Amino acid sequence: MQAALPLTRRTVLRSAFTAAVLAGTTAVLAPVLRARRPRQTLTPAPLAEETYRGRHIAVDRAGVRIDGRPLHVMRRADGSYLSGINHFQSYPTPLELARAAVDELGTAQLAMAAPHHG
Predict the structure, then answer these.
(1) Exposure class string for 80-97: b at 16+ Cβ within 10 A, else e
(2) Is the pLDDT of residue 117 over 70?
(3) Partner of 91 for a Cys bridge, out of 61, 96, 107, 115, CB 3.0 to 4.6 A?
(4) What pLDDT score was predicted for residue 24?
(5) What stretches of 1-118 show up as alpha helix (H) in DSSP?
(6) Across-strand partners of 55?
């Protein structure tokens, strides 16, 4: 085993200088690195948004919402969509699917939590 280096004024100053350079580099690079990351928003911007029969429909990357409540949507292999409201008919777009769900729901509301399969 090697013996520890003696604590001299030179090693203390060298260590302090190294720490200061690292802290300065971190302070300068942090904003640059933060700016390169994609910004995350809590609510994605809607791809489509409309009021249909008095109900607010929003379609975004996170899914489909009717009056702010999630609609369970499934994508089929042929590219069409179907929902938990009607498993027997598919629709070409999520917006058309949401309109059909509003028609089917009438005045009823969707449950707050989306169903989970497991």
Answers:
(1) ebbbebeeeebbeebbeb
(2) no
(3) 96
(4) 86
(5) 9-36, 94-105
(6) 52
Handedness of CA 42, 27, 22, 37 (dihedral sign): positive
Under 8 Å CB-to-CB from 98, ≥6 apart: which residues? 52, 57, 59, 64, 66, 71
The number of beta carbons lying within 10 Å of the beta carbon of residue 19 is 10
Gap between the Cα atoms of 50 and 14, Å rounded: 64
The pTM assigned to this predicted structure is: 0.57
Both tokens of residue 88?
A: 């027997």
What are the distances in angstroms from CA 95 to CA 47, 62, 65, 82, 83?
10, 13, 10, 11, 11
